[in-house]
Amino acid sequence: RVEALGGYVDCSRGVWRIQESLAVTRGIGDGHLKEFVVAEPKTRIVRIESDCEFLILASDGLWDKVRD
């Protein structure tokens, strides 16, 4: 999507980034990258069973460090 809009994606400082800056393509803010970043979240519907004790909402920063 970013490249189709004329931007570029590369690995900078060990992290994939758009325009050598932002490491995400979905977010709020970052006005200088507005044409490449969308505010619509990627969502998933998960059924919560009655025996579930916790619900954790987290970004990739946490999930990069936590295993299933």
Distance between the termini: 29 Å
Instruction: Sum up the overall morphology in one term.
Output: elongated
Helix and strand composition category: little secondary structure
Question: Radius of gyration from the CA trace?
Answer: 16 Å
Largest sheet: 2 strands, antiparallel
Q: How do the SSEs run, as a string of H and E?
A: EEH
Q: What ranges have pLDDT less than 50 throughout 5 or more consecutive residues?
A: none
Number of contiguous helices: 1
Strand order of the largest sheet: 1-2
Q: Percent range for helical residues?
A: under 10%
Number of strands: 2
The pLDDT mean sits at 81
Beta fraction of the residues?
5-15%
Can you offer a commentary on this structure?
This is PPM-type phosphatase domain-containing protein. It comes from Linum tenue. This protein has 68 residues and is largely without helices or strands. The protein is 6% helix and 12% strand. The protein contains 1 helix and 2 strands. The protein has one helix spanning 60-63; strands at residues 9-12, 15-18. It has a two-stranded antiparallel ribbon with strand order 1-2. Strand 1 (9-12) and strand 2 (15-18) form a beta hairpin. The longest helix has 4 residues, at 60-63. The protein is elongated and about 50 Å long. The model has no long low-confidence stretch (mean pLDDT 81).
